[in-house]
Design goal:
Layout (H helix, E strand, L loop, with lengths): L6 H12 L2 E6 L19 H7 L3 E11 L10 H6 L2 E4 L9 H11 L3 E7 L21 H9 L5 E8 L10 H16 L7
Parallel strand pairs: 1-2, 1-4, 2-3, 4-5
Helix pairs in contact: 1-2, 5-6
Length: 194
């Protein structure tokens, strides 16, 4: 829950224990802005702050589902310059993400990984209850493929953010978010599932 700003102090704490972390980041936005309204810390900046503080192993950062409008003609340049793998939403359309996640597992290796899932990574047809919806996003089935595709990684933490139930009178966004969090719990190291 909460906005994506909460990931920043969580990664500070985890990197303090484990060193720089790999990151599987599902989102419509990269959240690597520098400032907004003069502020350096807000929900669109957490991963830039994490890079600046050395909290991330940038060669092990993948961002999936990225899309949406931008004021910049090359909105993903900062991410790519850091060494992030940026998987835009259109690379995911109409296909299974199982092959992508096999590549991601190799990229992450056996070092500590954090999963950060912004609900706006999912298309608003399925999850309208968020503050910054962007059309043409991932499906719930693809979200499951991403999460289940992280099974076996050395996951040291995870979050699911940006759910705003008041924007979805159907309750579907909250239901989807709860199920995705359950799936994340099921893939944590040491958890036995049937």
């Amino acid at each position: 829950g909460g906005d994506h700003t909460i990931t920043y102090p969580i990664l500070q704490a985890l990197a303090g224990k484990h060193g720089p972390l790999g990151l599987v980041h599902v989102d419509a936005h990269t959240d690597t802005g520098d400032t907004a309204l003069g502020e350096k810390i807000y929900h669109g900046t957490p991963f830039r702050r994490c890079v600046e503080e050395g909290l991330l192993d940038c060669s092990r950062v993948v961002q999936i589902g990225i899309r949406g409008s931008s004021y910049d003609p090359d909105p993903y340049k900062y991410c790519r310059d850091q060494g992030f793998r940026v998987v835009q939403a259109e690379e995911c359309w109409s296909k299974s993400l199982v092959p992508l996640m096999a590549e991601v597992r190799k990229q992450m290796g056996d070092k500590p990984v954090y999963i950060s899932f912004d609900i706006d990574g999912i298309d608003p047809a399925y999850a309208p209850g968020t503050g910054t919806p962007e059309i043409a996003g991932l499906t719930p089935a693809q979200a499951l493929e991403i999460i289940r595709g992280c099974k076996g990684l050395k996951i040291v933490g995870c979050d699911l953010v940006e759910v705003a139930p008041m924007y979805d009178v159907s309750g579907n966004t909250a239901l989807l978010a709860a199920n995705l969090l359950f799936e994340m719990l099921c893939i944590l190291p040491g958890v036995k599932t049937m």
